[in-house]
Amino acid sequence: MIVNVYYCDEKTGSVRDGRAYSYRCSIPNVDVGMEVIAPTAKRDNRAVICEINVPESHIDKRILPILKEITQEAPTDGK
User: Fold this and answer.
1) What's the average pLDDT block by block, 10 residues per block, for the chain (79 residues)?
2) Which residues are bridge partners to 22 per DSSP?
3) Confidence (pTM)
C-alpha cells in the first residue's frame, strides 16, 4: 500500500508544515494519524500518516519505482 506522511519536528515532536511525502507501507492495520519511522536519504524520521491507499496514478512515474518503505511504527514513549 502507498501512504502519505508529514514529518515530525525532531526538537518539538510536532508535525511540520509543508507537503506530504509518499512511501510504500507494510505495517498491518496502518491508519491515518499513526506515527511511524520513515526512512529518508539522511536518516530515519518520525512521521505521521496523513493518507492511506494512495493510488499509484497519483505518484510521479519517475518516483514510483524508487519509493522507500515504512516498516515500523514509532515508539509510543516519544523517543
Assistant:
1) 93 85 96 96 94 96 95 79
2) 4
3) 0.88
